[in-house]
Amino acid sequence: MKTLSTSNMITNVSRRGFFKATLGGAAGLALAFSLPEKSEAQFGGPGPATNKPNAYIHIGSDDKVTLTTIKAEMGQGPYTAIPMILAEELDCDWKNVSVVFAPVDPSVYGALQSVVGSQSIRTLWTPMRIIGATARAMLVEAAAQKWGVPATQVRTDAGFLVNTSTNARISYGSVAEAAANLPVPTNVAVKDPKNFRILGTPVKRLDTRDKVTGRTQFGMDARPAGLVYAVIERSPVFGGKVATLNAAKAKAVPGVKDVIQVPAGVAVIANSTWAALQGRKQLEITWDEGANGAVSSASISRMFADRTQQPGANARKAGDAAAVLASGAKRLDAVYEAPYLAHAAMEPMNCTAQVTADRCEIWAPSQMQTPSRDVAAMITGLPKDKVQFHSMFMGGGFGRRGRTDFVEDAVHVAKALNGTPVKVVWSREDDIQHDWYRPASYVKMSAALDASGMPSGFHADVACPPFPNVGPNGVSGTAVECYEQFVYDIPNINVDYHRPDTHVPVSFWRSVGWSQNTFFFESFIDELAAASGKDPVDFRRQMLAKSPRMLGVLNLAAEKGNWGKAPAGRTQGFAITNNIGSFTAQVAEISVTNGKLKVHKVVAAVDCGHIVNPAIIRAQIESGIVYGLAAALKGSITIDKGRVQQSNFNNYDVLRMDEMPEIEVYIVPSTEAPGGIGEASTPGTAPAVANAIFKATGKRLRSLPIRNQSLA
Amino acid sequence: MASIKFNLNGKTQTVDAPGDMPLLWVLRDVLGMTGTKFGCGMALCGACTVHLEGSAIRSCQTAIQNVAGKNVTTIEGLSADASHPVQQAWIELDVPQCGYCQSGQIMTASALLAKNSKPTDADIDEVMRGNICRCGTYQSIRKAIHLAADIKARGGRA
What we know:
heterodimer
């Protein structure tokens, strides 16, 4: 058993008003705690330090345990996994746990409530353990006082306190009020992981039942009384403005209430989504397209290539790669490219908002709760504490809902409606054509092989639009992900970043820069192995002696995937990733028949540290592989005349049931600090499949998607 | 605007709506039944799947006037208590992730099982390929359909 300091993290707030508001005045023990403000440069740098409490648990006299979670749920499972950590240390009965979403309130919940970067478990693991253990310690103390025995004579057992000398048992709820009057201990003991009984087990998700009965309230399902509906026509060329508008025909459509201009374009407001969509078809708009009406994917690609000819900003340097590359050793050069990608979450963007003179209410499926509230305050001119944000379940996020544009749309329309609540719905076409895309990217790589055939030098020139910003060193951290962090032991490394700016909005897409760079880099590593005549797994293994966790998953995936022993008619490809604090390896098994690709199987091994819920981990590894495979096979957003050419699932198709490979997932047992899981497997699938295609056909795929290329 | 009468989840339902309004929007916006989802508006994704006379149809492409006098079942009407074999199987295997597509997946799968009590993987591919899941739950869905077939064969209880 390990003792951890609560170090002013925890506040006993049993008597504070906000619990009464949230939990209907339930009596009991309520603890608030502050999370260490852990910043990730990727998400805009460190926030202000704060000791304010930002999440809490409540144990009622009725034995119910309520956890308020600051993490919204978009499918990855934090709604279940975070309570598991708490319940483990609290040692309560899992059946009594329920979860509510937190409102946005920085005075209670901290500076930034968001669900991004596979961070939920990583950032909440230790705080949840401490808060759970603290509550348990206070319940033990309350029971000890009640029985007049030392606390050492009281143990807990799944929601009960047991007097070890008399075997008397009382429930947590029966002493919750008494515990609420005790001081918060300054140090608490957390469980030895070998005594875990909830963590590490495949506990069923808490959100499943509502999701199979249609009861889950997604953003799209918000229905405040008096609701009207709106859709917005946006400039087909990003950044364009309305030049002329004739709304007469649109206003004549039955059900249409009004047509107004908002910053995003022209909003048609109606008594149903259908009427709004019908009205929008009748709008007569001419657009001032601005300066970008001639931009195309080809012109963007040429611009990226040009950028790599110019001096870049250094992102990683070890030794002297230039000297090694110039030394006459065996050398390989290659250029790789990847297209823009849309997210295509199943639930199109939407937000419901109501704005009155003195307050604003928002119902949004958002990965960015606090920024959504703040932008609503800015648009309405209301104080932030007059904006009430409701976290709705998200029909997928994948990074798209890390933007607040769809919230802004709804608040602008609602502001014009003076108190009438409005749901602004994006059609699938709006969603595909006005996304914040995974950026296109263009990368030149060079490597030198030494006499033994192993890489002695590596150089990359990365051209990829920057977001959310460029660091003081001139490098976009998201653009060079993977190149900055790969763990192969190569003595001389140089990575340069070249900044190309386009008018196409770009942002986070599941696994971010790793998504394209892992395809480039792990394919190039495969090229090097082939040039050396080495087995691709042996080649990688030789460069991983200093990275035992990476080596561990490589060996596990190779073993479980029967590496080197593909069934007749099939070939295998391999790739590894070390994103989001986890380590993943994949074996893809494919066949190419008359130029037609079939992905039969993907075997993945993952080391994500402490296992919270193996069923959720398996589901996320499968999920990430499917998301990565869809993009690898089919994903491409192309630009012509400044606008996106794709519009719906007919021309931006994704993976379907009949294309689904068999997936096997193997999880490395670990007591390391937890890593992320939601994005772990997405990057490795494209290179694993492409490397298998090389094995089958001799064709090296240096761009995506695969379906655009002849495999015959 | 027309007054249209049809049978919804076993009860007579009358709605006043334009005859060409898709059933999807009648369910969601007029009747407030939000279990049926909007995904693409073009019958490309299956999120809006409901049963019309027991067959899986895309409610986003079904005008309300064509539903007059017919029987419609939505996810809300599949069972009162999540006891339909498909729902039981989905719960047993924890199929949903984000869950947004699952109403449609379940309605397509239940219509499949009503016609084919023991579907093969090929049968499942053929029918379920019309339902997109961006969370990639296809492997779980396939297992759950086989499980639901077993549950049904055993008399409906897991």
